[in-house]
Every structure is written in structure tokens, then in C-alpha cells.
Structure to design on (176 residues):
């Protein structure tokens, strides 16, 4: 997919983002995402990818992002499986988007949110919120949930995590 000034405007890009884009020579979404990532504009790269994904891709992306930091939560709360169960429920919905799986994802999201509330360490809390967002993405607005999962996952790590999450997003959008 090609990114244009019109596309950015239609999708509500910020003025600074549109200004940055106007100075670029490449417009294919993969190249734009790679340039943003190289400049450590990870949130902008994430914003771009999410806006070209299908609902199912957003759920998969949110799940992947959440999995990247699940170990942080499980290290602090080894017996609390609710965030992991939320991710599994969201993946299940992505494979089979039935009403039953949507309902299960919603319940798992609620449970993961309680896990986040009980986590004392901020990295573990971010990981649990990320799992909660992944499950909610299967049950409702995938765009905001995918954004939230990637943001939460990356917040509890560093640029290497962003790079890994964005690379997965690029693989998901290969046909876009």
C-alpha cells in the first residue's frame, strides 16, 4: 500500500507526522515504516501499520505484542495465568471469529485487567494491560486495542522490542 498526504489526512495524522512524510521520497508503507523505525519513531510506525491492517490482523498484532512482554508479568506473578489466557482467547477468535470465541475473549480481557491491577511492578502491569488489550481487540475495536497492546509491550522494553513488534506487523501487512 502507498502512503500519501491525502491518506494521512483522511486517517487523522498529526501535523508533525505529515510534515515528516512530506520530506520523504518513499511512499510504500513498508519503506515508510522502516524509515520511521530507523529514526526511532516507533509510535508513528505503529500508527501507520494499524491503519492499514484488517480487523483480524489487528487482533494477531495485538496478541503478538502482548506475548513479547508476558514473561515480565509471569516473573512477578508466576501463578496468575489470566494474561496468558487472554492472549490465547484472542488468538482463538482470530482463527475462528465465532460469537462464542468473542465472548470468551471479552471475559479473558476482563480477567487480565484484574491481573494488571494486582501487579505491583510497572513492567508487569504493562504486560498484563497488553494482554488485556489483545483480548479486547477480538471482542471490540481492534484498532485502539492493537495500538494499546503494542504501546504497552514496547513501554516495558526498549527499541529492540519495538523493532520486533513492527517487523511482525510488516509481515502481517505484506499483501496490503
Amino acid at each position: 500500500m502507498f502512503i500519501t498526504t491525502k491518506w494521512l489526512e483522511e486517517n487523522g495524522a498529526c501535523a508533525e507526522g505529515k510534515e515528516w512524510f512530506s520530506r520523504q521520497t518513499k511512499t510504500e508503507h513498508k519503506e515508510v515504516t522502516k524509515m520511521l523505525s530507523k529514526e526511532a519513531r516507533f509510535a508513528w510506525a505503529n500508527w501507520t501499520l494499524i491503519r492499514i491492517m484488517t480487523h483480524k490482523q489487528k487482533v494477531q498484532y495485538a496478541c503478538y505484542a502482548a506475548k513479547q512482554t508476558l514473561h515480565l508479568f509471569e516473573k512477578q506473578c508466576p501463578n496468575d495465568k489470566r494474561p496468558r489466557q487472554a492472549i490465547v482467547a484472542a488468538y482463538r477468535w482470530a482463527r475462528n471469529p465465532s460469537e462464542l470465541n468473542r465472548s470468551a475473549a471479552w471475559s479473558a480481557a476482563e480477567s487480565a485487567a484484574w491481573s494488571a491491577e494486582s501487579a505491583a511492578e510497572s513492567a508487569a502491569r504493562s504486560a498484563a494491560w497488553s494482554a488485556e488489550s489483545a483480548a479486547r481487540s477480538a471482542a471490540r475495536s481492534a484498532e485502539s486495542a492493537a495500538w494499546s497492546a503494542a504501546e504497552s509491550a514496547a513501554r516495558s522494553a526498549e527499541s529492540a522490542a519495538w523493532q520486533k513488534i513492527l517487523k511482525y506487523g510488516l509481515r502481517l501487512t505484506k499483501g496490503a
Remarks:
- Residues 55-172 form one domain.
- The mean pLDDT is 82.
